[in-house]
Design a protein that fits this description.
about 350 residues; alpha/beta; Isopropylmalate Dehydrogenase; ten-stranded mixed β-sheet; binds nicotinamide-adenine-dinucleotide
Amino acid sequence: MTKKILILAGDGIGPEIMQEAVKVLQFVNDQENLGLELEQALLGGCAIDATGGPLPEATLKLAKEADSILLAAVGGPKWEPLPIANRPEKGLLGIRSALELFANLRPAILYPQLASASSLKPELVAGLDILIVRELVGGMYFGKPRGIRTLENGEREGFNTLTYKESEIERIGRIGFEMARKRNKKLCSVDKANVLEATELWREIMTKLNKEYPDVQLSHMYVDNAAMQLIRAPKQFDVMVTENMFGDILSDAAAMLTGSIGMLPSASLDKTGKGMYEPCHGSAPDIAGKGVANPLATILSAAMMLRYSLNQGRVADRIEQAVSTVLDQGYRTGDIFTEGTQKVGTAQMGEAVLNALKAQK
Ligand code: NAD
């Protein structure tokens, strides 16, 4: 049976890194007869340039029809002067929201070969393996009312709204518990229940859900403490579950513990398991077009897609193994380069992964 995969290369380094991920996908597709049909569409700044908006109707239609979506990254300085409602990032938020991709899974895994690339001491991060489950379609980024208004005294005021319904908290909470169950059975729910009522409710629902998952050890932590603990002793965490904005910030911090954001994939899932897969990083305009970006996070996103949405865990394992092999062989893009390793560009790194796949027994 064929499976439709929508490829969204986006902006900045997006097309460069996507090219390598597509080569890898096509290779395993041919070799393993996966029946994947790859289609390309526009999202973000490139869509604004071509159609006037960041999420064209045609892209949304293809996204809805697809079995799964692989995205590189969107955005860049060219589109920053546009009003927020028309910026590339709106395309991303729009697709997440239209497809109800409410669960964002962000693993922060430190490859042993890269322990020295972390800004923390190797003993603090060696063996790090955290999964952050971030709520993705609610909270402050979507809450209404929002805007900038002028007060009676003529001063302007910016305002946003943080809301979470019980059902929204419960569905992301369940994902957190389910993921913890598949791992080390420890779930830390992050909130700011001492200050924000929306997260007071969050804590109450998480505590209630724990009764259905008695085998999972649930703890609660305020977000400011969670930020400190992530830097102080990150290995205390197994799975963390949190609301949209806290998750946005904490998952970037966790990503940095691993040495490079260029290594980290992510998944955003709907309630049926359909998903959009993308690297954790952005479009890196500072290095776009130079052929130096790290394509591994996008390649690992393709692996995650095979595992979570396409039921091809064994093929995902092969890709992850190939990535580990190229790190063993000493290949490094600039972002993970250390003395004694071999610096390569985007295309060479993609080629090395392909060669490692070809060499697998
Ligand atoms: P960024 O992740 O693009 O870049 C941060 C730093 O990490 C830069 O120095 C960059 O060169 C480096 N970096 C990122 N990915 C890399 C890779 N694969 N290989 C090597 N180095 C890499 O974050 P930013 O600079 O805050 O944002 C740039 C643009 O990307 C903005 O327009 C932002 O809105 C957008 N953005 C998009 C997404 C997304 O598409 N999901 C996510 C975050 C930011």
